[in-house]
């Protein structure tokens, strides 16, 4: 198996971002976005997905958290797309349901090359620290769009911290499962021959 790694940069008038990703890592993360809770979520994504991840983002936080969260998701999505290449041998589909105290999140993913996102749920509080709760949903949408994922997600609960964290952990486990190599497969998992 070749290295499934990527290094992606993005620079706009709103953000400057550098991301490195190793899909077959150990769960090591070095993250600095300027938003403490978002850093915690990205670290959880790496830890529970066993991805090695670095994210360095200098964003316009004097405005709000939107551009930083969205642009990190875009860049990370591009990194997954690059690292997975032709997707030869991957399992492709996965679903995970993850609880965190009273909250439960479910993520169903198809590494299809066809971006689609569906979300069901509402966050119990508008903010978690400096992180706008709705940006958890927007992160998933932006990641799916740029990684070429069909991604369905849902969440219930009474605490937005728990809800968002459960979503990131469910995403991590589903992505890890879907991107794993199936030793029985030597081709791309599609009757079309490509994804």
From TrEMBL:
Single GO molecular function: imidazoleglycerol-phosphate dehydratase activity
One GO cellular component term noted in the UniProt record for this chain: cytoplasm
Localization in the cell: Cytoplasm
E.C. numbers: 4.2.1.19
Keywords for the protein's UniProt record, in alphabetical order: Amino-acid biosynthesis, Cytoplasm, Histidine biosynthesis, Lyase
Organism domain of life: Archaea
The name this protein goes by in its record: Imidazoleglycerol-phosphate dehydratase
Organism of provenance: Halorientalis persicus
